[in-house]
Specification:
alpha+beta, Yope Regulator, Chain: A, 5-stranded mixed β-sheet, 6 helices, elongated, disordered N terminus, Arp2/3 complex 20 kDa, cytoplasm, actin filament binding, actin-binding
Amino acid sequence: MGGEHKNDVQSAWFNRDSNDGASLQYDACITQSNKPSEPPHKMSQSLRPYLQCVRSSLIAALSLSNFASQTSERHNVPEIEAASSPEVLLNPLTVSRNENERVFIEPSINSVRVSIKIKQADEIEHILVHKFTRFLTQRAEAFFILRRKPVKGYDISFLITNFHTEEMLKHKLVDFIIQFMEEVDKEISEMKLFLNARARFIAESFLTPFD
């Protein structure tokens, strides 16, 4: 990521009006980097600006450091979860594609919580998203950064601490979240098509004796 773009992201991150509350609202058409997108997998043209904005925001947020708890001696806890020291919590950030798709990034000095709202066009997709995310959260220990309970108003949440960025490659963590966001819509669409095809087959089989 170019130095000029990095400065733009950091400036947008840390500079805000004192009356605008505790969060920032980003549109998907935020200034993009001149450098081509890193992930090798393809993405739709309509989704590209949204994912590039999320990527830039995550890279800026994942500048984490080891920080001991100020309330519990000899403990190091994710400050974004403990919320016991407001001075080490940074401004939360919302990257929104539309009212049904958005990402909520909550950074702190030693941890970042990333919550994702997955697109749900109808009741069937709502049920599929619920079942899919529930399946994943029940196996959260296998994903390391997956949070068992999502933040209220979102479908799935990730918690990245300074220990994760020390043990893993930071850009790979970002790639994982971006790829998850890209693939989850395809997965839900495929499940919906399979469900509709199965329902059609069952209905035809049930009505055949009455022909």
